[in-house]
Specification:
single chain, 445 residues, six-stranded parallel beta sheet, five-stranded mixed barrel, binds S-adenosyl-L-homocysteine, binds iron/sulfur cluster, binds FE3-S4 cluster
């Protein structure tokens, strides 16, 4: 007998991947995904707690499911992800219509927990975080998959040891645990066998991959990149995120040696002020960061660099913020994700004095985003006239008669072609026009 499963996912790519794993695990118990929570026999809300707003979204969605539970007492409602880990049993106490609260390390137990909840045997909280947890080997199901994309994410590690003072992740995902390299390669090979051509290796801080294993018997991140590059079916490799403090010379060398490694680094800077960087516990200075950017550009002049920035961290003065604005000019990022600082439970900065007023944060964010938007435009305009390699992803979402793909630097390119193309195909395209966040081009015949 088939049952209906509804999954709502918030947050980062780790959560996206965890949702796929949960869907697959519950699928073995005859749960099929539906797009309507009203029809569901089981609802999973996979939550994110990175900023206050993200957590609020999860709470309000969960609150709304109370009426569904009243109508159908057999409905099982599970909360997973970082809010589940953070709130634990408190969530069950606050919302009596919830059945399960399951942290990121416990998702593999979900089928068993859902079965117990279905028999109304238990409302359960499963939020143990063990430093010796071994991430199970788990191959994604490819048949009947949601998307026929040539790109997939592969999680290579969980957790974070860095304790940036604003951040909730070390508290919700626990300490760094690396997956076994052989499990990662098995997964990559399996994906390649099913038509995947581009792999993004995922971790909160991929540069420290393998460092939780004993020295002497350890596969480092550069080693892992070389192993993945040996997989014949894979034509592009990306990764995210690398912490600037751990961006090693060995990794920069990989850029020149592994031609499948895409010239795009996401290198979150967070602030341009040394005083704020120190209070954030980022463990690098503005000068050290700029040196790494220069070294990256020397190793690979065409590299695209993107970043994350927080404005309005406690104690951030006008002068500190000006230094962040200045950094935009010095680095000239391809693009930047920027956020207003938000207090998070257990994160040290929540207790820092000198909180910045909300309207100051908003004004700074608007100024920063406006300038970055101009820089991003300037950068893509300079590309017009160049010929680039594009990996086909499918028909363009904006203009259905066009095809869409990405360059190695991760820039979106739309182009016309009368022939049927296949996702994953590599083509040469001449760039003819810069649009707002993409480029338009013409196939090189
Ligand atoms: N591991 C990644 C970041 C994951 S969180 C890294 O270290 O780069 C993604 C981004 O969210 C962070 O880079 C930061 O810019 C932002 N962020 C994290 N906590 C935040 C908070 N409390 N308030 C505002 N933005 C935050
Ligand atoms: Fe959070 Fe810092 Fe870890 Fe990134 S490195 S997940 S920002 S604590
Ligand atoms: Fe959010 Fe947790 Fe990812 S807080 S960003 S879902 S690690």
């Amino acid at each position: 007998m088939n049952r209906n499963l509804y999954i709502e996912t918030f947050g980062c790519q780790m959560n996206e991947r965890d949702s796929e794993i949960m869907a697959q695990l519950l699928g073995e118990d005859y749960y099929l995904e539906t797009s309507s929570p009203e029809e569901a026999d089981c609802i999973v809300v996979n939550t994110c707690s990175i900023r206050g707003k993200a957590a609020q979204k999860a709470y309000s969605l969960l609150g709304g499911y109370r009426t569904l539970k009243e109508r159908n007492p057999d409905l099982v409602i599970a909360v997973t992800g970082c809010v589940a880990q953070q709130d634990g049993a408190g969530l069950l106490a606050r919302m009596p219509h919830l059945d399960l609260v399951v942290g990121p390390q416990n998702i593999y137990r979900l089928p068993e927990l859902v079965r117990a909840a279905r028999d109304r045997a238990a409302r359960t909280t499963a939020v143990e975080l063990s430093p010796t947890f071994a991430i199970p080997a788990f191959l994604p199901k490819m048949e009947g998959n949601r998307q026929s994309s040539p790109k997939r994410f592969v999680t290579i590690m969980q957790g974070c040891n860095n304790f940036c003072t604003y951040c909730v992740v070390p508290h919700t995902r626990g300490r760094e645990i690396s997956r076994r390299p052989e499990d990662i390669i098995d997964e990559v090979r399996h994906l390649a066998d099913h038509g995947v051509r581009e792999i993004t290796l995922l971790g909160q801080n991929v540069n420290s991959y393998g460092l939780d294993q004993p020295a002497g018997n350890r596969t480092t991140f550069p080693d892992l990149l070389r192993l993945v590059a040996q997989e014949a079916g894979i034509s592009r490799i990306r990764f995210t995120t690398s912490h600037p403090k751990d961006l090693s010379p060995e990794l920069m060398v990989c850029l020149g040696q592994i031609n499948k490694l895409c010239p795009h680094f996401h290198l979150p800077v967070q602030s341009g002020s040394d005083r704020i960087l120190a209070r954030m516990n980022r463990k690098y200075t503005r000068a050290a960061y700029l040196e790494k950017v220069a070294a990256l550009r020397q190793a690979c002049p065409e590299i695209a660099i993107t970043t994350d920035i927080i404005v309005g961290f406690p104690g951030e003065s006008e002068g500190d913020f000006e230094q962040t604005m200045e950094l935009l000019e010095l680095v000239r990022y391809d693009s930047a994700f920027s956020f207003k600082y938000s207090d998070r439970p257990k994160a040290a900065a929540a207790d820092f004095p000198d909180k910045v007023a909300e309207e100051v944060k908003s004004a700074r964010l608007a100024r920063l985003q406006a300038r970055q938007e101009e820089i991003s435009q300037e950068i893509i305009r300079e590309l017009v006239g160049k010929t680039v390699e594009v990996m086909v992803e499918g028909k363009s979402k904006a203009a259905g008669d066009q095809w869409s793909g990405r360059t190695p630097e991760n820039r979106i390119v739309n182009f016309s072609c009368d022939r049927q193309l296949h996702p994953g195909q590599l083509l040469r395209v001449i760039l003819e026009e810069a649009c707002r966040h993409s480029l338009r081009g013409r196939l090189v015949s």
